[in-house]
Amino acid sequence: MVAILGYSREQIHSAVQDMYTAVADHPDSHFHFPVGASASALVGYPSERTAPLPRAVQESFAGVGYPFNGEAVQRGDTVLDVGAGAGVDTLIAGQLAGPDGHVVALDLTTAMTRKLRHAASESGGAPVSVIRGSAEALPLADASVDSITSNGALNLVPDKRRAIGEMFRVLRPGGRLQLADVVIDRPVTVDCAEDPRLWVECVVGATVDEDLLHMFRDAGFEDIRVVGSRDYFAHSPSRQTREVAAGFGARSVELAMRRGDRAPSRTAQFFRRASPARLAASMWRRGFAGVLGLAVALLACYGTLAALGLLAVLGIGLSLDEGIWAGAIALFAVLTALAVVPGFRRHRGVGPSLLAAGGAGVIVYALFVNYHALTELTGFVFLAGAVGWDIWLRRRQQARLLGLGAQSP
Fold it and tell me: Where is the secretion signal located (predicted)?
């Protein structure tokens, strides 16, 4: 699961359906995201693609990018549109697939599927089948489609890995996937359960960009390319939403990829996800690099001391170069302090950086100038306080941003 943050799947699905029922039935209402024909132009749809579409379809457009930059849909394809909405992408896919193709349009919202069925009956191009369902359980047979398109749907799905696995399952080997979706630079790490609307109105459901690419690779997709990126939230009519999006580095991306011949084994997927480099990057994005540095510094200092004591009790003598030992402790203490400093860009609080620098300085002083165990311990206490303070300020800033999203009209 990705960033459920206190919501059940049922709560998320209900929030999504409520929001997009409103987009389907009352597209002229106020929303936190661009809607309608003007929105499709903002995110890159060429007028020659949208002009032939029914007005009712265009007015309920709520995509976040132009997935057709991925060029996945080819003549004669059986195409799946995941999160089809009112059908802008479905009908464009039908134009590209032609009369020998077939488009299956899937959406969770009854009002959207009803609107799309009516529009599809009047359109040309490939025949269209409209299905109400979830991306987490696609009602299609294995290897039954040639290409998949999706626009702004995956960030609304609770279990993204499951949805990506389902896309892999229904695509034939070598099949193509294109999508536009919202990504963020920094993950949401605070509980947002007070208002489920945040899932559909802000960025709570979005995934860190690198994590999203990893999910597709883990599932077995290959030749993954970022074919477009845009500051989607700059066009939001809500100042609060723009501020929330900026706070998390939210934007939309357009991806293209193809399905590999087979999915990696569960063991291979586990080792990919457990990669030290991936875990370290994840901790850095979440502001926990300081925790990791502090843990290693403490282990280098007191863990080594405990190990030496235990070996002595067992009658095993072990010599250790004290200069190297002290250097390792000092190095990790300084790295911990440096890991705290970037937090200033998030919360503008200088206190944690100063406290971390002071803690590292005290440790270095104790190790190389005038050693005293209590002085060294005091340095570690300062360093631990700085790490905890930084995390607290980061979480408070996230809560403030998300509070703005919940309060915006």
Answer: none
Cα dihedral sign, 233-237-241-246: positive
The burial class, CB within 10 Å (0-12 / 13-18 / 19+), for 198 is buried
User: How confident is residue 203, by pLDDT bands cut at 50, 70 and 90?
Assistant: low
Q: For the domain made up of 9-276, give the CATH fold.
A: Rossmann fold (3.40.50)
Q: Tell me the pLDDT tens digit for each residue of 7-23.
A: 567 877 888 888 899 99
Residues 6+ apart with CB under 8 A from 358: 382
What tens digit of pLDDT does each residue of 314-332 get? 888 777 888 999 999 999 9
* Alpha carbon 38 to its chain's center: 26
Quick one: average pLDDT of 155-179? 96
Alpha helix (H) residue ranges in 26-153: 37-42, 47-50, 55-59, 88-97, 110-120
Phi, psi (deg, nearest 5) at residue 123: -95, 160
pTM greater than the 0.70 cutoff: yes
320-330 exposure pattern, b = at least 16 Cβ within 10 A, e = fewer: eeeeebbeebb
Question: Which DSSP string do the residues of 274-313 spell out, in sequence order?
Answer: T-HHHHHHHHHHTT-HHHHHHHHHHIIIIIHHHHHHHHHH
Distance (Å, whole) CA 270 – CA 262: 16
Q: What is the mean pLDDT of the chain?
A: 89
List, as one string, the DSSP characters of 142-197: TT-EEEEEEES-GGG-S-HHHHHHHHHHHEEEEEEEEEEEEEESS---S--TT-TH
